[in-house]
Amino acid sequence: MALRPDSYVVLNDGHKMPVLGFGTYAPEQYTKEQAGEAVKVAIEVGYRHIDCAFIYGNEVEVGRAINEKIADGTVKRENIFYTGKLWSNNHAPERVRPALESSLKDLQLDYMDLFLIHTPVEFKPGDDPSPKDENEKVIFHNTDIRDTWKAMEACKDAGLTKSIGVSNFSSKQLELILSMPGLKYKPVCDQVECHIFLNQSKLLRFCKSKDIALVGYSVLGSSRAEGWIDQNSPQVLEDPVLNQIAKKVGRSAAQVAMRYLLQRGIVVLAKSFTAERIKQNFQVFGFELSAEDMKRLDGVNNDMRYLSIDSWKESPKYPYHDEY
Ligand code: NDP
After folding, report:
1. Which domains does the chain have, with CATH numbers?
2. Percent of the chain with pLDDT over 70
3. Which one of 86, 160, 179, 210 counts the least CB within 10 Å of its CB?
4. What is the pLDDT of residue 1?
């Protein structure tokens, strides 16, 4: 079926996730108010899927923007798909529900549509989102991720979130949850980095075989936040093959980069705080890439990851030691 602005994927728990989501993370030079303003523009343009997280520090502003758009009649709460994420200092089972409730309070929402474990990497439990030792090294922790998952299941049962899922998990880490004795709910998705340089074909095949949606982030090549991302890494939107195809089909490189993933059944997140680009990035439904162009874009893949976060490599739960 042709993709349309209101297309969605049916998740393995029956809920529906719009195939295009709006990203709200921005590096520190942006204000949190800009995130809120951008969310309002995005909702006006037609986005119904908003991706946020505790650690982005903007839940108050993003929640306020959503509520303003509900109050002015642009959208109804039930037509917004809101994703939030559990940060790494809250994997201890007894900390999961309070973390979700605290986010809901900041957002001024009654429930989330989707709550994700942000990353399998876990820090020392506590109120410090980035606990460090005397040598300024992150203090890792190793709660059994299955115990965290049980606490996530309880949040769904309590009606605090409609769906639960994971982010940045390898297939092995997903398997660990899928093979849990007494598993009540499978993760509905794995939200991972995904773009023409890291097309995630193996993880996608694995997820499809388990009825888990793959949600892609940094599809435009990331926000290139200093301190997180190698500033010398190649830029998705400058890739010559991508630009040749964009020129041929009369679309922007960003639109083709997004469309490439959508046509492979991937849910796409895209961030922009620029009104024109927010609009442009929503115009990805009125054209189709040919099988030949899809194949050419497949050929650009070189498994390059922007967000490998080398300082987390010592975590026993670091996901990227696994092939996929
Ligand atoms: P993206 O790949 O979406 O790229 C964002 C950058 O691209 C911004 O600098 C933006 O600039 C620019 N841009 C946007 N549209 C265009 C366009 N049409 N032409 C040219 N440049 C454009 O970055 P993110 O890494 O932020 O990923 C998107 C979202 O995914 C995040 O906001 C977040 O919600 C989520 N995410 C999740 C992670 C996880 O661990 N689960 C990790 C990283 C991201 P400008 O704003 O100035 O327009």
Report:
1. 8-311 (3.20.20.100)
2. 100
3. 179
4. 64
